[in-house]
């Protein structure tokens, strides 16, 4: 999902299918925002079986992986050797410190509990905005305050359209969402509309298994 969004695969595939190269929709300029993952930093929030598998693959793509959660033996990274650093405290201050580690991408793979309900909202997206991080949610929709996510995506999109240069843009640059609240989303749900309009956002139907 991350690669699909960062490489603008859906946009370019649709243009190819339509035999269209629409300058009004970005044209050649779309490639200015195409990126890969080599040398980028991935923060994994929840280093369980899913987090470990993704961490292993991310390191194989040349990413620096850091983890928030207890490193325990398990599938994908049996010895807990993939992360270059890990943070185990679960209070709000520790979470914010982790999010402030110059993350290019944040993978969310925590379980849905009372402690994780709405753990990512306006303040957290404000911290991620420092690097205009890309969000990947493979956990549950209720982990994120969806209205705040929409606002963070729209802030970045407005600054992009307004010509604000990199480093000064607000919000987060994109999101790959395998989950949402509720599931499935209604046709008129603001999140669905946002991910359809935002060039660096994608929403799937809880099928992003490895």
Describe this structure in words.
By secondary structure, this protein is an alpha/beta fold. 31% of the residues lie in helices and 13% in strands. It has seven helices and seven strands, in the order ααβαββαβαβαβαβ. The protein has helices spanning 2-6, 9-17, 49-60, 92-99, 122-128, 146-161, 190-197; strands at residues 41-45, 64-68, 85-87, 105-108, 134-137, 174-177, 201-203. It has a seven-stranded parallel sheet, sandwiched between helices. The N and C termini lie close together (11 Å). The mean pLDDT is 82.
Sequence-ordered SSE layout with sheet pairings:
Layout (H helix, E strand, L loop, with lengths): L1 H5 L2 H9 L23 E5 L3 H12 L3 E5 L16 E3 L4 H8 L5 E4 L13 H7 L5 E4 L8 H16 L12 E4 L12 H8 L3 E3 L7
Parallel strand pairs: 1-2, 1-4, 2-3, 4-5, 5-6, 6-7
The rough form would be described as globular
Parts with pLDDT < 50 across at least 5 consecutive residues: none
* Tally of helical segments: 7
How far is the first residue's CA from the last residue's CA? 11 Å
Run of helices and strands: HHEHEEHEHEHEHE
Percentage of residues in DSSP E strands: 5-15%
- Measured on Cα atoms, how large is the radius of gyration? 17 Å
Strand runs, count: 7
